Amino acid sequence: MTTPRPLVRPARVLAAALAAGTLFATAACSGSDSSASPEADASSTVAERGVAAQTTSPSASSPSASASPSDLSEEGARNALITPADIEDDWTQVRDPSEWRDSLLVGSVDVAAFVDGRSDTQDCQRLVDALFDETLLGKPTGASAVTGFQQGDSRLLYQVAAYDKADLDDSMQWLSELPDTCDQFTLTGGDAGERTVQVIETSLPQVGDNRQGLTVTVKGESNGDPVTLSLDVAVVQIGADAITVTNGGLDGADHDTTSAAVEQGTQRLQEVLAGRTPSPTPSGIN
């Protein structure tokens, strides 16, 4: 099902959102974020996503010491992570944004609203589920590293990871088709009730081998009051490696911050893949 879009092509993805009040539920295994600011601790408008910040996940095929510079190592993945200086503003790095989850993303896609039926529904359900557990590109098969930042009611999650090349290509293709298949749909069930999800495509800096930018909005209610969660999602592919950015909140998504994370992050990853250690980003960079 497709709805007309002004100026931008309907995008496919990222249904999601960080929501306020009772819309956000922390997974039972989730630990508290002791490094978060008081404002962030008080805010339940931010989705809790299942990742551990600044940690790496080696795979069975993780590169050895003799691997070529094009192979992403655990140390390389950590070095490729962006820093607060890369995105500026008032973002504060979160020491451990582990097990973040957003209950706005819990539910089932309403198949009755789809003219083309089951296939489109499956694509949209996959999107919602992937946004919930932060697996838009599937699970990494090599090294990976994650970090998180917060500013008011917004959070930014940044991941660098190595994937199976064929699977990564398929995931990028799937993302590129979402604007037509999942431009608008209804999510039901869960604690948040019925929600309207819209996905539009957004432009990203021309970096990497392939890229996909999306803005996802989720409209629903919290305690009888209307709420709208806006989320930027950006993915950049370099060979079998990729960076993923998820950024937003109830106050909207800052597209400039998303672009800065993509541009600076891609440069850092390219430095790592070339066998170099990225230099610290100077404060004040545009």
TrEMBL record:
Top-level division of the source organism's lineage? Bacteria
Q: Tell me which positions the record assigns to the signal sequence.
A: 1-27
Write out the ranges of the annotated region (Disordered).
Answer: 29-75
Compositionally biased tracts (Low complexity): 29-44, 57-70
UniProt entry tagged with the keyword Membrane: no
Task: Name the UniProt key words of this record, in alphabetical order.
Answer: Signal
Q: What is this protein called?
A: Lipoprotein
Q: Provide the species name.
A: Streptomyces sp. R17
